[in-house]
């Protein structure tokens, strides 16, 4: 596009300086605190963090919930995306608009709505009591189930959007051809749809997994102090304990887990493609 490469670099330079000064530098300073000790550089802060059984529980809970949300989002997302791409153009646009509509609403408002739905006097408990499945309302709020539901509702649209985009780029005759050749729907999905949409799955899985790990509002409201996750623990370390070293450790763990998830999904997609 540019005859002189220097012109392109000059156009990128202001954005690069802005990102480095206002994002990379502060984050680097924050993360470096986890390696600094009175005697020099050390990994002792990480050892102290994982030596605590409470921190181990929070770490594995965060990893478990983020993985479950990503996996369930992929299952629901594939079904929804396949249905959307096979709709007529007019209906497809309307359905896609409904999928993206929640993204236009504040996560705070969307999360607080679950307080009304999942509370002891909420819609879910009322239905269960009316159906005779339970005699008294059960506690759903401030449990891992509530956090899982909130995170799934929050990030499911991102998975659906990624998969719809990937499926729209599939050859239109791929699925009908596989069906004509005798493949059942499970074989169609495993051998045709999944390989052709792996890039969308990698993008959607990364967005959902990292979003579930780093979301603060939803775990804080629906989980409270009973269901701590890494992001809520980080907030407590900074605001309550004023422990920036522990906060730096948690921040580094979140960054490493996010990049690891992306690399793992890419590796799985590449392995699937090679086979």
Explained architecture:
The structure is a single chain. It contains 13 helices and two strands; from the N terminus they run αββαααααααααααα. It is mostly helical. The two termini are 37 Å apart. The model has no long low-confidence stretch (mean pLDDT 88). It has helices spanning 5-32, 44-51, 53-85, 89-100, 107-118, 123-130, 144-168, 174-180, 185-196, 198-214, 217-223, 230-239, 244-274; strands spanning 36-37, 40-41. The radius of gyration is 23 Å and the shape is globular. It has a two-stranded antiparallel ribbon with strand order 1-2. The longest helix is centred in the first third of the chain and has 33 residues, at 53-85. α3 runs antiparallel to α10 (198-214) and α10 runs antiparallel to α13. It is found in: Cell membrane. Residues 59-265 form the ABC transmembrane type-1 domain.
